[in-house]
């Protein structure tokens, strides 16, 4: 069984690859919007900074907004004002030094810093809340995450196209055609006898 040429061209086209990538990003973004309510004004606000994410993100407000406050002491005052700032246990007080120590790697914070800094500058220009944990900061980190997801999917598709698809599609076509021809012979033998 031979696959029609127009179908092979469509399956190998860039358009289909980009369509699948944008569809995946849309699904992830939509699920995030449903959970966090980016496009709606929910009465109950939710934070995206929980668990390990709180530790990775903690570098950004510490060094860009609160550089004068050492060892994440700003978390104590913000935690009293805003119940959404959860996860202070992820940047715990050290028993030896009695200061907060961030045990997480700084790489994620570096990757998100362009989105954080651009949002922080916009917030300063608008003279809006610049605490590092308000809605606009959460949304900026969400946009950054979606951009990195998009870049990762584009890279994955390029990798798959270069290494796997050129070998995988012909092999799958051969196996599929053998699968279709195989039972026909067995059926013919059954009816023949």
* Helical residue percent band: 55-70%
* Low-confidence spans: 186-193
Main beta sheet strand tally, sense and closure: none
Q: Please count the helical segments.
A: 7
Number of extended strands: 0
Cα-based radius of gyration, to the nearest Å: 26 Å
Beta-strand residue percentage: under 5%
What overall form do the CA principal axes indicate?
A: elongated
Distance between the termini: 27 Å
Account of the 3D structure:
This protein has 193 residues and is mainly alpha-helical. The protein has a domain at 47-133. It has seven helices and no strands.
Concise overview:
The protein has helices spanning 5-11, 14-36, 52-57, 59-64, 74-81, 107-125, 135-192. With 193 residues, it is mainly α.
Task: Walk me through the topology.
Blueprint (H helix, E strand, L loop, with lengths): L4 H7 L2 H23 L15 H6 L1 H6 L9 H8 L25 H19 L9 H58 L1
Main traits of this protein?
193 residues; mainly alpha; 7 helices; disordered C terminus
